[in-house]
Amino acid sequence: MSRKKSVELYHRALEMIPGGVNSPVRAFKAIGVPPIFIERAKGSKIFDVDGNEYIDYVGSWGPMILGHAHPKVVNALKKALSKGTSYGAPTSMEVEIANKIKKAFPSIELVRMVSSGTEAVMSAIRVARGYTGRTKVIKFEGCYHGHVDSLLVKAGSGAMTFGIPDSFGIPEDFAKHTLTASYNNFESVKTLIHQYPEQIACLIVEPIAGNMGVVLPERGFLEGLRKICDEKGILLIFDEVISGFRTAYGGAQELYKIRADMTCLGKIIGGGLPVGAYGGRKSIMEKVSPLGGVYQAGTLSGNPLAMVAGITTLELLRAKKVYQDLEKKTLYLTEKISECAEERGIPFSLNRTTGMFTLFFTEGPVRDYHSAKMSDTKRFARFFMEMINEGIYLPPSQFEAWFISLAHTQKNLDKTIEACDAAFRRIA
Ligand SMILES: *Cc1c(COP(=O)(O)O)cnc(C)c1O
Fold it and tell me: How many domains does the chain have?
């Protein structure tokens, strides 16, 4: 399997783009080999510039739940394209997608479209602060909410409970308003809330975590958050940029029957085009300009192409048995992979929900950032390369989710299981 053209492109890219990529994880840093440059994708497969084909489990990090280049999405886009690509004025499509989002998420009464998940989260936090008149934010270690200044923060050590920047370029003055709790640890949340009474504007959480690898909320965790937020006048923000329309049509809120005060969406709702959205209770979202005094705007917000790709994707996800089908595929693949890993004597822990899962190379259980970090990342890097050579394209990091699409066939899944078995044998 030659990757000559990818390597050449990477070297050219390095001369022009920081690290050769437009988003860090694409650089394969955790693997230590040059990234693979993609030429096209169709259904469950992606094809690189050297003509190699792979079964794809990245799915553009979540959006491609229908598979790549779904004919209905492509046709809808072609039609929209001939009508112009952006107007900077309202369209019927924005009404249509807002209606679909509201129907899927009963907790969302008003919704604003933006152009990325980062923008959605950044805006939601601003609204939460504007609405409550408070400053501080609670987030969880291992949850990712885009590259928002105030959320690229890690927990301070020891007696320091306020956050410290997790990236250069973020003033401590911003970071100190962010408090970090441990996922699935309700006590850690309670402690922070008691320490800063009446100062916490919102608590933001991935209700199903996907950015430390898949970590599910334990029984009672989300319910506990809902209850304490109600008691203390704190807004509960669910970041469902990944879980929305993936784990169920109505995301984690449908699955766990919890209403968030505000919800952030992205990925699937753009059908592979750049999109984000944030929404929530009317009384909160009324604070957004031009209704209220919280400013937020976007030249390309509600972009017609993104709306059309999103609307078509959501329509297709409305078909009967879509989520049962996705669940069946996930269950089959993960059970077989687990059996193979066990047989080969590989220590592992597999966390799964509909359409996404992570195979951690640690005995587990993986229930938070700390336990995820126990994984053998060197073994993961070897596994990743074995899988690439078998024609399976995985997320190039241990701490990411594998995404399954509706386009993955039984044959694809069986080939993946065989590849896993061969790879496990070589890395055991
Ligand atoms: C991807 C992601 C984001 C950021 O979305 P972008 O479109 O990459 O800015 C935010 N939150 C979660 C949970 C995500 O997975």
Answer: 2
